[in-house]
Design goal:
The protein is an alpha/beta fold. It has helices spanning 3-6, 9-20, 66-69, 72-77, 83-90, 96-108, 117-122, 132-137, 212-224, 243-254, 268-271, 274-278, 280-295, 314-325, 344-356, 380-390, 452-458, 461-480; strands spanning 167-168, 174-178, 230-234, 261-265, 299-304, 330-335, 359-365, 401-406, 411-414, 420-422, 427-431, 440-444. It binds pyridoxal-5'-phosphate and iron/sulfur cluster.
Length: 481
């Protein structure tokens, strides 16, 4: 009998523990044998969260102390809602040429302006053209590309799948509950630019205000459909709901027996995390809904939207840490954007930093076909390449799935699951058998990233229909074989 087999199970457990857990200041235990070279320090960059009083580099915030800057009321009061105010705040910070370019960019942009001081302070204004946060919120005229000819407003067809305004019932068991039409900031690339924010010069929007009457109709619809187990509360953005509205929405939906899962969707943690530290009433309302859900055996979560590691600071860690301590789990959805997060490094750093603050990366979306944002879109091939890199860089549950939200209402498809993808024309064809059986859905890569031959074909209008027919035909052949 060997020595090990004579040990009690308690002793064995101790052995296992000391083998697994490095014991600090314990001279008798040897460091594990090196089986691989030490890591490059850059591998751990995801742990370096921005801290200190960095915002004071922005002249307009130079005199603002930490207690003031990290108060959500101050952030909201000082949120910039006019392009002219924004540009004024940047004068002396960014170059004159950049400011003129941005002024013209705003003039032609269909999106409303709303930028928090926090976001503004995170941009590297010495290098605004390359900055990943600037690119998401401030358009420049010089980088503008023509829209893809196949782009349509509300490309996801959310309105055609809506039995009640603002309630999209596309998938068998889940629905999207668009509770309101405002957000703490407005993103250039927003899929819901058909509804979110005030009307712009170029667009008249669908009204999805947080009205009691509309909510009642949506509750009644959810209650009438026993198959609906999963409700996504989005908008707009739940950050802008009052605490009482969070409670009302949560309680009403939790009280419907067949509703088993709910997610509140908010970009707030990425753009105004201060709310998590100073808006106690709102945080308590959310935690209250999560707790009531748990008591009922129902799963309530927060879904958020970070696109770049620079959006995660020490303030984010503290704010989301508060939710984590209170038992609120958080998942993240990212929009893949050219010049923002379309590199292996950016995606890997983001996934690791999210994991570091206990947020699970859930999806990375292929950029939807949204007006005026062609320069932010990239190809399906890029998404496939990035997915290959990110997988393996973090735990499996911290690895996002790269998806295309199929234009025309096919729902989310994993990016590499196309039936056919023509790299020359940039047309990918998807099917969604459990969502819209028998239908095919098309996504179009931005034309400026196509090979010369593909660009030439798109330049001829008569070719458009032919390219699409060709792609559909190959897809159908592949599918029957
Ligand atoms: C994204 C989405 C959902 C939720 O889908 P998951 O894949 O479960 O995250 C539900 N309804 C609509 C209309 C959606 O766009
Ligand atoms: S916060 Fe979300 S809904 Fe609001 S503008 Fe940004 S992407 Fe659109």
């Amino acid at each position: 009998m060997s020595a090990a087999t004579r040990r009690t199970s308690g002793e064995l457990e101790m052995m296992v523990m000391t083998e697994r857990l490095p014991v600090v200041n314990e001279g008798s235990i040897e460091a594990p044998r090196k089986v691989r070279p030490p890591v490059e320090p850059s591998t751990l960059a995801h742990r370096d969260l921005r801290d200190g009083e960095w915002w004071q580099a922005v002249p307009a915030f130079a005199g603002v102390d930490a207690a003031t800057f990290h108060d959500h009321r101050w952030q909201m009061k000082n949120t910039i809602t006019k392009a002219s105010d924004l540009l004024e705040k940047l004068s002396g910070l960014a170059s004159e040429a950049f400011l003129a370019d941005a002024a013209e960019g705003f003039r032609i942009a269909p999106m409303a302006v709303r930028v928090s001081p926090y976001l503004l302070s995170l941009v590297d204004w010495k290098n605004p053209y390359e900055d990943p946060i600037r690119r998401q919120f401030l358009p420049t005229a010089s980088s503008r590309l023509p829209d893809h000819p196949k782009l349509t407003f509300d490309s996801l067809g959310e309105q055609s799948d809506a039995p009640v305004p603002g309630l999209t019932h596309r998938y068998p068991d889940k629905a999207l509950f668009l509770a309101l039409d405002t957000c703490p900031v407005y993103c250039r690339f927003c899929t819901r630019s058909y509804a979110v924010g005030p009307d712009q010069e170029m667009v008249e929007k669908v009204s999805l205000k947080a009205s009691p009457k509309r909510w009642e109709e949506m509750f009644a619809y959810v209650a009438s459909r026993p198959e609906l187990e999963d409700i996504v509360i989005s908008g707009g953005d739940a950050w802008n709901l009052r605490a009482a509205q969070i409670r009302e929405l949560g309680d009403r939906l939790l009280s419907i027996d067949h509703v088993r899962r709910m997610r509140f969707a908010s970009k707030g943690p990425a753009v105004l995390p201060q709310k998590l530290l100073t808006d106690d009433e709102w945080v308590e309302a959310l935690v209250g809904v999560v707790d009531r859900g748990r008591a009922l055996g129902k799963d309530v979560m927060l879904h958020t939207h970070f696109n770049h590691a620079n959006e995660i600071t020490e303030v984010t860690r503290r704010g989301l840490g508060r939710l984590f301590q209170a038992g609120v789990f958080v998942r993240n959805q990212t929009v893949l954007q050219r010049g923002v997060n379309d590199t292996e490094e950016a995606q890997t750093l983001l996934a690791r930093r999210l994991a570091w603050i206990n947020v699970h990366p859930y999806y990375v979306y292929q950029h939807d076909m949204v007006k005026g944002t062609e320069e932010l879109r990239t190809t399906v091939a890029t998404a496939e390449r990035l997915e290959k890199w990110v997988r393996g860089a973090a735990a499996g549950f911290n690895t996002p799935t790269f998806v295309v939200d199929a234009p025309g209402g096919g729902g989310k498809r994993t990016v590499h699951s196309y039936e056919y993808y023509d790299h020359l024309t940039g047309i990918s064809v998807y099917s969604a058998p459990s969502v819209k059986p028998g239908q095919l859905f098309l996504y179009f890569d931005p034309i400026d990233l196509l090979p010369e031959e593909g660009r030439a074909r798109w330049a001829v209008e008569a070719e458009h229909g032919k390219m699409i027919d060709e792609a559909l035909e190959v897809a159908r052949e592949v599918m029957v074989s």
